Amino acid sequence: MLSDTMTSSGLQGKVALVTGVNNPLGIGAAAAKALAAEGVRVVGTYLPLAPRATVERTPGLEYYSALVTAVPDELAAAIRRSGGEIVVVPADIADIAAVPMLFDRAREAFGDVDILVNNAAIDEPDTLDPAAESGASTVWDAPIESLTANSFERHFSVNTRAVALMMGEFARRHAARGATWGRIINVSTDGSSGFAGEISYGASKHAMESYSRAAARELGKHGITVNVVSPGPIQTGWIASPLEQRLAAETPLGRVGLPGDVADVIVFLASEGARWLTGQVLYVGGGRQMGL
Fold it and tell me: In the chain, how many domains are there?
């Protein structure tokens, strides 16, 4: 059962909408579990994809590509076994009609959303460098393609537009019911200032951070805090062993991150302990990136 200490965060009975919970080893799934452990009723979204079978069970592109096609039934079952509450909703947040639908589904299941966690993202290597087009991404060890209108649209429709629309929908409904407490937590990347080899991913996240700071300024009067979690490399199934060793050596705390490392910060930002934090970008990467 859930811990009797869950009320220390002030989150018991709140309703959270967490996007991108499909990968069982992902940040979204970890955040859903961590919030549910605090007594939060969770609505998790996932993008329906054709299942991808693989015999690979070690981290790398093939393994990760299979993980992200999962339907989060086991996540939901695990949360319920622990005494938590969750519903999972299929949705493509690149479709603007999905945004109000998700808030409606949350209301039907548990009530109005108090906590919004924008975690879902698309990340496909692209480049402006003609010499790199036939090579592979140094991060994904996957083919890297030239920037096109399509690659731009794929990234910005999910990583930027959807996040902005989700924040707007949250704020409108929050104000309409006269609520005075709300949390928005957006998941970025520590490469957002300029991500060579993943230029659309980095740029779309950088734009999302700008929307987040503007939202923090505009929505504070409604009792809503808006903060950004900016992870370094997190082992969600994609970091092959040689790369993991290299990244660990580059990280002051000596390892790559785990989804729970990020989930704990998300819970903190949702909690009463973070009531005086808004408009901030928190680097969650073991010191690999340090803000001024």
Answer: 1
Query: Which is nearest to 74 in space by CA: 25, 139, 4?
Result: 25
The catalytic residue among 46, 64, 201, 283 is: 201
* Residue range(s) defining the domain that contains residue 176: 4-284
Average pLDDT over residues 65-75: 94
What are the helix (H) ranges across the chain?
27-37, 61-67, 73-81, 98-109, 149-156, 162-176, 199-219, 241-250, 259-270
CA 111 to chain centroid: 22
Active site residue 283: no
CATH number at residue 194: 3.40.50.720
pTM above 0.85, yes or no: yes
291 part of a folded domain: no
Burial 76-98 (b: 16+ CB within 10 A, else e): bebbeeeebbbebbebbbbeeeb
β-bridge partners, 85: 41
Is 292 inside any structural domain? no
pLDDT band at 7 (very low <50, low <70, confident <90, very high): very low
